[in-house]
Amino acid sequence: MSAPEVRKFLVDSGELRATVASLFEAVGVSPTHADEIAEVVVFADMRGVESHGVQFTPRYLRGITLGHLNPKPNIRVVHRRGAVAVVDADNGLGFLSARFAMKEAIAIAAEYGSGSVAVRNSNHFGPAAFYPMMALDKEMIGYATTDGPPHTVVWGSRKPVLSNDPVAWAFPTLEGPPIVVDTALTGVKEKIRLAAQRGGTIPADWAVGPDGNPTTDPKVALEGSLLPIGQHKGSALIIANEVICGALAGALFSFEVSPALVMGAAHHDSWKCGHFVQALDPGAFGDREAFLRRTSELASAMRNAPRADGVQRICMPGELEAELSEQRSREGLPLAATTLEALDAVAGEVGAPLPSTTLATREVV
Predict the structure, then answer these.
(1) Residue 259: helix, strand or coil by DSSP?
(2) Residue 12 burial (CB count, 10 A)
(3) Is the pLDDT of residue 2 over 70?
(4) Which neighbouring-strand residues pair with 115?
(5) What band does 207 get if pLDDT is binned at 50, 70 and 90?
(6) Rounded CA gap, 272 and 254, in Å?
(7) What are 87's strand-pairing partners?
(8) What is the pTM assigned to this prediction?
(9) How big is the CA angle at 170 (ends 60 and 225), to the nearest 5 degrees?
(10) 228: number of CA atoms within 13 Å, CB side?
(11) Per residue in 95-107, pLDDT tens?
């Protein structure tokens, strides 16, 4: 079956960012941190990654009001050695600690050519692409990954013990949009949740039901577990990321993180998970201009590769998302009515003005 039409309203992204920031300020987050969080969640919606966007905000806010998340974390470097640093997130939202860590990685890379920073004691950091893209302004390569709550089976098992452990890369180019890779190593839980809310099906290789068998029903999938992409190969990549984000960072492994949110909780509880970010300066490896030129040549060659039947265009990773973000900057950001209603509900809980009364909206027809 196909998903029914969802009512959407066009909003200005700047207004939405300010509105989301005000909700975080209402629960005790500093204005600077509130704006930094809001920037990342709106960034996700602007690029079409609705599963990691504003719709997740109520769960963050409730996590803070219930005392599970620290609204005023003291994020700090707790270890440094040469081109390596470790950051303690102080149980704050991952948006803040991952940004802090990437800034550290960029500064280290400016000195050493490469900067690697691990984060411990953290929580959900939203769209992984945001953090590598921070390195693009310095014409550096960025990388990020994270672990999280257990919702994925290790290949051969029926019990969820892994997270989707997304990986993201950002590569600067001489011309055209940067190459931005952002992929989970499973079908995405939040996309399944959205499909269940709105009616529809999911690909058969995304999840298994409680019986361990593959399912296309998102409601059954929510009662079961995610499958790694590429079968045993995806499972192996997740395990590698678990080592980096758990053991190396000194954080919890996914099977040690609370599964409450996975089970449908309306709030984000404390995860104490780990992230890993890295910045690489192409200039430290040779001619920076040559690197940028060669990366652009690669992108051009891929776009101009012989197309399969029915394919109108070959795009580089992140290209469509960049175009969509530009379009939404001009024309407005479509926000689902269900998301706006959820924001109103949580605003009432935290004593903030209702977004539906403060945002200028126009229904998409």
Answers:
(1) coil
(2) 16
(3) no
(4) 279
(5) confident
(6) 10
(7) 77, 119
(8) 0.93
(9) 45
(10) 24
(11) 999 999 999 999 9
